[in-house]
Known about the structure:
By secondary structure, the chain is α+β, with helices and mostly antiparallel strands. It has helices spanning 12-22, 37-43, 45-50, 75-86, 108-118, 147-161, 176-184, and strands at residues 2-6, 56-60, 65-72, 132-138, 166-172, 188-190, 196-202. β6 and β7 (196-202) form a beta hairpin. α1 crosses α2 (37-43). It is globular. The two termini are 29 Å apart.
Amino acid sequence: MTRIRPFRPGDEPALSDICLKTADAGVDATGVLDDDDLWGEIFVLPYVVRHPEFAFVVETDDGRVVGYIVSAPDSSAFEDWFEHEWWPRFHDRWPKPEGDPLPVSASRQDGIVRYAYARHGGSQPFGDEYPAHLHIDLLPETQGQGLGRELIATLERSLRDAGVPGLHLVAAAENAGAIAFYPRVGFEALPSPEGTAVFAKRL
């Protein structure tokens, strides 16, 4: 059996591991980048630092954390914080790649690092109507059991109680499982930048 509970300090290593094991369009990204830590430091850990009240995990009977959902209720404010307070601590570890645009020889890690440097408030055209955004990941052993639906419902209740009017997410265009899943839980597809699929829902 599994249960959903609020995030608590100490969950961070498990969240980083889940993020890594699902980061490559839903499959294990171990070794895809030069530094596996990059995934967690961009896509999950800043959320539990900034908004632990909007983070929930899936825990097994033996105490393992095997899934999570994290969110920022105000994407513009979160991206400003990410740009000015969170990401600068990693500038020495992951310097901004040179070249604009990146050369053809650039690695996948270069592209993700460039994305991190480009994050800033107000960059999402749908942020006014759907100000919150989420990231959700479940290890393969937990998928297909309704836990993704339950995690989203838990987060939606929390955001709704906080007066947040709308929620969006961005998936990789090649993540067929995610693209099939979100309409089933009430999300509407929005016009999306190349290589992505954006979904949104009014709360």
